[in-house]
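#onboarding

Welcome to the new folks! Below is a worked example of what a typical request in this channel looks like: someone posts a single protein sequence, and someone else replies with the predicted structure as tokens. Don't worry about understanding the tokens yet, we'll cover that in week two.

Example request:
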Amino acid sequence: MTAPGESLNCEDFSMFQEVLKVMRTIDDRIVHALNTTVPTASFKGKVDATETCKELYESLIGAHMSRDKAIKTCIAQTSAVVSQLREERAKDSDNLTLIKQLRKEQTKLKLMQSELNVEEVVNDRSLKVFRERCRIHYSPPKVQ
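Example response:
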């Protein structure tokens, strides 16, 4: 899994999305993971479903936290760039190159902020599937 800030490129939005896509692999394959690791009634004795569900839950939550931190790190970096460009524009309002750069960074910032909404949907979907399959085997700790 990619650690936030390590190989996550906040400058290039396409690369940013590509890294998030790779980081979302666990969520994309949750149904397969549950089908192959959580036993059906006929295989109950062969696998410890409680431990399996617990490990899967911890992996999911770890992935969710890692992606959330990565997205918020890039949002903070891009916000700082936007603020700096706004200050420069205030001093030199006729500089077209500066204005274009500011608009580009503002657009990138909005796209990154929209990734937080995508992340919420992905997380909710994964946790719903997890709860459906693991509810009788494992109850995650309550989040306050």
